[in-house]
Specification:
The protein has one domain. The protein is mostly helical.
């Protein structure tokens, strides 16, 4: 789930920026199915958005808690969300 959690965080990047979790606004609409810059699976993008080095163990859980799941899981009809996050949350009964 490590790669998924970074990518799942990016599904609500615009909202996280609006809620002041990210210093910088995202320049992408959807991260679903992307490996990201330098094939780093979202870590480079998270560092850029945070304005500092992204820590998977510190920042990952804190950012995940701030996700708006209604946005993050909306993947159909041009949404920015993630199909895999939607499936994961459904498995958990969320």
């Amino acid at each position: 789930m490590a790669r998924g959690s970074d990518c799942h965080t990016l599904t609500d990047a615009k909202g996280l920026h609006q809620r002041k979790a990210f210093k910088r606004a995202p320049h992408f609409k959807s991260f679903e199915g992307q490996l990201g810059e330098r094939q780093q699976k979202g870590a480079v993008e998270l560092t850029t958005l945070l304005g500092r080095t992204y820590s998977k163990t510190k920042d990952g859980p804190a950012l995940f808690k701030q996700l708006d799941f209604t946005v993050a899981r909306k993947h159909a009809s041009g949404g920015s969300g993630s199909r895999s996050l939607d499936e994961f949350l459904r498995t958990l009964g969320i």
